[in-house]
Write a structure and sequence with these properties.
This protein is α+β, with helices and mostly antiparallel strands. It has 5 helices and 7 strands, in the order βαααβββαβαββ.
Length: about 170
Amino acid sequence: MTEIVVRALTEDEWELLRSLRLNALQESPDAFVASYDDEADESEDFWRARLRRSRRLVAEADGEPAGLVSIGTLDGVDNGAEFFGLWVAPQWRGRSIAANLVKSGATYAAEQGFDRIAYWVGTDNGRAVAFASSFGFRPTGRRRPMRVQNGDGDEEEIAMVLPLTEDRRGF
């Protein structure tokens, strides 16, 4: 049985963040706003600053880095956090890595005093909507243009929100 451990990266682990992020950008280029070329030559200071800006959780499966998610403050929403940059290495997909990252991220956000966490999902990505829904995320009325356009430019993301307290309001 695979042992999955999720933990926060420290600033001194900037090289691990860099490695995982660059792997994600190469393997899933359409999933991220930035590209491999945008970030490949960035300095140590860039990666350390990124680790200070938001919490980065790494999932390790049998001691091997297997996935990553970031948790930051949700702009314009009191006590709101958001997930972003969720990625799982291809060889670990379908093996509970993403689920462990989401559960650990929600726990971290609640411990930090956030009362809800949002996850932006493409409205046409039924798999991602179903994944988020399985953890209790619910669609809100908030939409925005996809930050990464792969088609005709009309693609949208919807904010799905998970209440972390008894207060069930959206945003």
